[in-house]
Amino acid sequence: MVNIGNEWDEILKDEFKKEYYLKLREFLKREYATKTIYPNMYDIFNALKYTSYSDVKAVILGQDPYHGAGQAHGLCFSVKEGIPFPPSLKNIFKELNADLGCTIPKNGTLTSWAKQGVLLMNTVLTVREGQANSHKGMGWEILTDEVVRKLNQRNKPIAFILWGGNARAKKALITNPVHRIFEAAHPSPLSAFNGFFGCRHFSRVNEFLRSTGQEPINWQL
């Protein structure tokens, strides 16, 4: 079964026994055996592996993994080292540069954010090669909703960063007033000019963290 290797194992143990998850697991076994699925099965839970429950300072929610060869590695918007930046990631780096003056990095691997407490989680954790949203509705959303609910129960403040419709759909799960929600359009080229550019979420999240006595995130890669 699942072995995340930190607090999430205990927090989600009942979830992994539920019927929906067992069905999802059987579906994934068939998919990985017969098709090309991303990310590698050992990377599916990387968002939770890199950022344990108590360490979460901020949450960035993505949609589903990149569906091109060698891109996805279990952290939303992040790509493996040496892989060209997908358009949404390019726009994230443009906004970072405009907001905080961060230089555009040489590679798009966001693990340093995850290690500082930024949970980089997609709402759906797997995808077929070349078919965006192909694993939507198979059960992942139930699990990732539960992750957000568990984080919402925490009394240590968290910045929830919701870009685009899929992420904003989780807003109803964030009810604890100690947390702060930051909303904007998706960084995709189709929508970035509708409010993602200029949202200044990186500096605003750091202001929020400082105001709650937490160490800000070093967003520079």
Description of the structure:
- Helix content is 33%, strand content 11%.
- The protein contains eight helices and six strands; from the N terminus they run H-H-E-H-E-H-H-E-E-H-E-H-E-H.
- The chain has helices at 7-11, 19-34, 46-50, 87-100, 111-115, 140-152, 165-168, 201-211; strands at residues 37-38, 58-62, 118-122, 127-128, 159-163, 180-184.
- The strands form two sheets. A four-stranded parallel beta sheet has the order 3-2-5-6. A two-stranded antiparallel ribbon has the order 1-4.
Spell the H/E element sequence.
Answer: HHEHEHHEEHEHEH
- Outline the biggest β-sheet: 4 strands, parallel
Number of helices: 8
Straight-line distance between termini: 34 Å
Bin the strand percentage. Answer: 5-15%
Average pLDDT metric? 97
- Class by helix and strand content? alpha/beta
Rg over CA atoms, rounded to whole Å, is: 17 Å
**Low-pLDDT ranges:** none
Count the beta strands: 6
Main sheet: which strands, in order across?
3-2-5-6
Q: What's the helix and strand layout?
A:
Layout: H1 7-11, H2 19-34, E1 37-38, H3 46-50, E2 58-62, H4 87-100, H5 111-115, E3 118-122, E4 127-128, H6 140-152, E5 159-163, H7 165-168, E6 180-184, H8 201-211
Parallel strand pairs: 2-3, 2-5, 5-6
Antiparallel strand pairs: 1-4
Briefly summarize what is shown:
By secondary structure, the protein is of the alpha/beta class.
Key features of this structure:
221 residues, alpha/beta, two-stranded antiparallel ribbon, 8 helices, 33% helix, 11% strand, globular
